[in-house]
Design brief:
Length: 714
């Protein structure tokens, strides 16, 4: 494959596909990226190789490494790390020394058992060099898993700080090991020279990062648009990376320091981090997929016993050193027991150190052993390391998934979703208020159609609350198949309504009942028309595909002259904290009867979320906020309300994010039907499908149709 553009397309598509497959089995996306690279690389189909395209895409690797380093710097905020600074210091030093000492000792013993006992000097050189390489970790894989899982907490903060410090320690140990190796092979470079060289590299790399961070901070204060910040910040970061590389310094340390400077400035301007977050995903996919393509499984065979010992000894050294460092610092048990597992990934830095060894003519004799050994360790650690990072963060309870839905208990991901939206997860919050008082002379009814026993009580409560607002009575309608006419006795029919009768009685209302033998839509429409209902309440089907009910909803809504409230049950139905997202002010008038009904019966807190287009100006946001405040002052005077006007880049994500702090979402339905809905979509349907909390979707009758009916009556 010679065409670079086609190669990029294949890398992106295959990386994303394998990432999604990995997520299905609860593996981190980075594992999928690397597996995709293995399939495309020389160990698989051979489409991406160093001979064809590998070197032509190396610039993506350099860009990704700089962005990764900068992103790690964001996580080293001194104000947050103050409580764990002692832990970070002890763990960083002890785990690095642990990996070095363990690998040196293990390789030395293994080569003594397998080789000539008389060649101690050569075996010692090999052991020192492998021990120095073993110290390095893979910040890219660790950072990607942390971001993907949305991890937050003390263990995550400690992990990111240790990873940042680890590369600096790795450079120092590697420089000293190289000096010792030179002395052992007859090149008296001197230990002092090696230490000074390492200190020079670290200090000047950090100074370059400080200068870049300060320069970016100055530039950011003169730029206000995200595109300009992204362009200027990326230019300065890449310039920093290439400059440090030309000077023989460490781009990783410089990039980390630049991020560290910006996040710790008094202004704490994180806009560049957020702008880069939107730019990074395709670069990361290319980086990790290319990393997988560069891995050759043949290295596993060539490494032999030394490779296996190196891999196992490095894990033991990292884990044992982390455990010991945590004990010395008095770190919490969670950090002590699990942090070492998250330091297993190893990739780019280790490979760079191997290249430095192979480019040194004095150490060329050891390259044929070191290269396959380290590459074998990289293959194994990159495949299993991200999974260990994921498990560590999950066990610590610091991932978004782990923090998850409060009602799911130990269930996570798809299992939680299935439980929430299934019969077992549907629950009703206890009615803790005084019973409602039914009207002495009911004016009409509010009809609800119960099809599933799990939702009958919830529908009865919603219908009773609406009936209280309309001075009406709730009425439960059961639609039965025409073929069942006459097969059930009066007692059996009455028994079907017991759950909703009990719920309505608990709220202080009697319940009317009716069984109709007809099709679902036709039976509901006839019940509404015959009883002159003021409103209709229906429930979406339980399960993961509630929109299968959409055809019935459309048909009922199109043939009635009163509002229809479609309830999506998910978890516990409670009406204490309501979220009302809307796009246009006219939607509020359509929702007002439902909101007034809930306000009268439940007295909830209501948050209004006005979603404007992403490019609206601050003036438009202020104007929309003032108009919303005036509407609230006019219509919901005695109700506890709050509002937020947001320029939403994704309307769905804004609603789902806000729903996490509420227990019920109420919104209007789209007026589009069939083909138009297929082309343009429906925001309400998307919320119903993805939201993990109950949702009310309100269908209001078409005003033009109401006017037409009025003219016909006249």
């Amino acid at each position: 494959m010679q065409e670079v553009t086609f190669g990029i397309a294949i890398l992106l598509a295959s990386g994303l596909l394998f990432a999604k497959l990995a997520q299905l089995v609860r593996l981190p996306s980075v594992t999928g990226f690397i597996l995709a690279g293995l399939v495309l690389g020389p160990s698989g189909l051979g489409l991406i190789t160093m001979a064809t395209m590998g070197h032509r895409l190396d610039h993506f690797t350099q860009i990704a490494l700089m962005l990764i380093a900068f992103g790690i710097g964001e996580h080293i905020e001194l104000r947050r790390l103050g409580a764990i600074a002692r832990d970070v210091g002890y763990i960083s030093v002890v785990q690095a020394l642990g990996a070095f000492v363990m690998v040196v000792a293990a390789v030395l013993c293994t080569t003594w058992l397998l080789g000539d006992p008389g060649q101690f000097r050569e075996r010692l050189v090999l052991s020192l060099l492998l021990g120095a390489v073993a110290v390095a970790t893979a910040p890219a894989a660790i950072l990607h898993v942390v971001r993907e899982q949305g991890a937050r907490g003390p263990l995550t903060a400690t992990l990111m700080a240790v990873v940042a410090v680890d590369d600096g320690i790795a450079i120092i140990i590697f420089g000293m090991a190289m000096s010792a190796a030179h002395q052992l092979v007859g090149q008296q470079a001197g230990l002092v020279h090696a230490v000074l060289a390492s200190v020079y590299e670290i200090v000047f790399s950090l100074l370059m990062g400080v200068a870049t961070g300060l320069l970016i901070d100055i530039v950011l204060h003169r730029l206000h648009r995200r595109g300009e910040m992204l362009t200027g910040g990326l230019a300065l970061l890449l310039l920093c990376g290439e400059t440090t590389r030309l000077l023989g310094l460490s781009p990783l340390l410089a990039g980390m320091m630049a991020g560290f400077v910006i996040i710790n400035r008094a202004e704490r301007d994180v806009r560049l981090f957020r702008a880069l977050n939107a730019f990074e995903p395709p670069i990361y996919v290319l980086f990790f997929t290319l990393a997988g393509a560069h891995l050759d499984l043949a290295a596993l065979r060539l490494a032999g016993w030394v490779g296996l010992v190196y891999f196992v000894a490095r894990i033991l050294g990292k884990y044992g050193g982390t455990w010991l460092g945590a004990i010395l610092s008095g770190a919490p048990a969670m950090v002590r027991n699990y942090l070492g597992l998250a330091l297993i990934p190893q990739a780019g830095v280790a490979i760079g150190l191997v290249f430095m060894i192979s480019s040194d003519p004095r150490l060329a004799a050891w390259t044929t052993i070191i290269t396959p050994v380290v590459l074998a360790g990289v293959v194994l650690s990159e495949l299993g390391g991200p999974l260990l990072v994921h498990l560590t963060l999950d066990r610590a309870g610091e991932t978004e998934e782990r923090q998850g839905h409060p009602q799911c208990g130990e269930l996570r991901g798809r299992a939680c979703d299935s439980w929430l939206r299934g019969p077992q997860g549907v629950r009703l919050a206890p009615w803790s208020r005084e019973p409602l008082h039914p009207p002495a002379h009911p004016e009409s009814v509010v009809v609800f159609g119960a099809c599933h026993a799990a939702t009958a009580r919830g529908l009865a409560r919603v219908a009773t609350i609406l009936a209280h607002h309309y001075h009406a009575l709730p009425m439960s309608v059961r639609i039965l198949d025409r073929s069942e006419r006459g097969r059930k006795s009066e007692e059996e029919l009455a028994a079907m309504f017991l759950p909703e009768i009990d719920e309505a009685r608990g709220l202080g209302y009697p319940l009317l009942t009716e069984a109709i033998h007809d099709s679902l839509a036709s039976g509901l429409v006839s019940a509404v028309e015959y009883n002159d209902a003021r409103a209709v309440v229906l429930a979406y089907p339980l399960g993961r595909n509630p929109l299968a009910f959409q055809k019935v909803l459309d048909e009922v809504a199109a043939n009635i002259l009163c509002p229809l409230v479609a309830v999506r049950f998910a978890g516990t139905l409670s009406c204490d904290r309501l979220l009302v997202p809307f796009l246009a002010a006219g939607e509020l008038d359509e929702l007002l009867p439902v909101l007034e009904a809930l306000a009268t019966a439940v007295q909830p807190e209501i948050t209004f979320l006005h979603l404007l287009h992403a490019d609206c100006s601050r003036r438009e946001i202020r104007t929309a906020g003032e108009q919303l405040r005036q509407w609230l002052d006019l219509h919901l005077v005695d109700v506890r309300t709050d509002f937020r006007v947001e320029a939403a880049e994704s309307r769905l994500e804004s609603i789902l994010d806000s729903a996490r702090t509420h227990n019920l979402v109420i919104m209007t339905a789209a007026r589009r039907r069939r083909f138009r809905r297929l082309i343009f979509g429906s925001l309400a349907n998307s919320v119903v499908h993805y939201c993990r909390f109950p949702v009310f979707v309100v269908y209001t009758p078409d005003r033009s149709r109401l006017d037409g009916m009025g003219r016909e009556g006249a």
